[in-house]
Write a structure and sequence with these properties.
single chain, about 500 residues, alpha+beta, His-Me finger endonuclease fold, seven-stranded mixed sheet, two-stranded antiparallel ribbon, elongated, binds zinc ion
Length: about 500
Amino acid sequence: MIVKTYEEMFGQKLTIKDLVNGFIEDTKTGKVTGFGGKLDIRPPYQREFVYELDKQKAVIQTILARYPLNVMYWAKKDDDTFELMDGQQRTISICKYQTDQYSVDVEVANKRMAKTFSNLGDKKQAFLNYPVTVYICDGTEDEKLAWFRIINIAGLKLTEQEMRNAIYNGTWATDAKRYFSRVEGEGFSSEGHESNGHTYGDYVNVAGGKRSEKENAVVRQKLFEIVLEWVVDDYNRKNNSTGSDKMTIDNYMDSHRRDSDARELWRYYEDVIEWVKSTFPTYRDFMKTVEWGILYNIYGKSTPIDADQRVSQIMAKANEISNIKNVYLAVLSGDLKYLNARAFDKRDIARKYAEQNGVCPYCKKKYNEDEMHGDHIRPWSKGGKTEYENLQMLCTECNLKKSNYDVKYLPWDTSIYEDFDLEVWDAENSDGKEYMTCLYPLQQYGYNIAFTYLITEFITMIIYIIQWGFYWRSRLVSWSAFHVLGRLGQPIFY
Ligand SMILES: [Zn+2]
């Protein structure tokens, strides 16, 4: 690959006048051209224009103050046209200003005044003559993309997904971006088949709470990335892929790169969100923080018919739950372990520990405070509240046994709760193995077998003692043989 400066290639410097020549922004196709129609300012792998107005103004002020702008990179194409690899935002800021699309504060006779390009007066010519430093690279498609990636890694400008779009660009990526990379695209703004007043974007965790943050995240490919994560997870589950066999987003994009369109991905996403809407018709604000695609991949085919009602039942005591986001996972899996009871207050824990004198009420042994746990006397899953009256301090072992006992209960199970009884639990759950002592056979098989066992043990012990004797005798012989016979040269034993 060859890299030259514009000056080396054309024998003169590139000025803003050359750059803005024939600037066209086609809002229908999204195509932007400049440099006399020969520069594609927004090639397929470039992200959408996201500069805020104040950043655009800063570019113009840099130029008017005659400070240098950062280097820009163009790639030469086969037909002697160019595409812009790096510098899109600066180039568009310049072109938009030159076509009077916004104004910038300019110092005129010690006063700051907002001026469009047409009103710049004698500063106009200096603006147009400002030299722009451009490097032009000429090479294969792969070389250009590899270089594009390096430029962007160095500048830390693109998100991971923007980078992937650049590398796996093609018909498929272009079509997919139509759905997922635009604020007005179907993936974000559509209400789907059964409208419920919420758009698809209300079910996806693209960014924080503010509308503008979300829109920016969509443009910066966050939605696209989420959907790809889901579909790749689906593929890996269906194919039982684990470890290094797992498909990645890169693999997926590479394998679809030449597809004519991205309808398959769109339909998958549509299935996910329509499933959420029909399974959980009540919209709840935190739904946008749930990884719906993953839940769909696991539970989409077997969904409890009263799922939404179960969520409501759990939500009725939401203030008792520490991780309410997991309510959908808990309902779909039928497993309460995904919901945790709110923890007891630290001061309540200390007070209760003192009140119990550090004694565990079940095993009656004494422990340090850090060896005990705050337990709901009436289990939280059976409606027990996280309040002082329902608190007891248990040792780790008893706490574990009691929680294993409690887990049998689900919040929508209204059967009566029987108090946990440690002795009953131990009797039901013990198979005797933990009493593996010398009395074990006696307890298990009665005296006759125990007697045989003890005799066997006794004989084994005698054999050991005899062997031990032989061992020491042989040690003595060999010691003597070495030290005594060896030195004196005559036998004294045997
Ligand atoms: Zn205990």
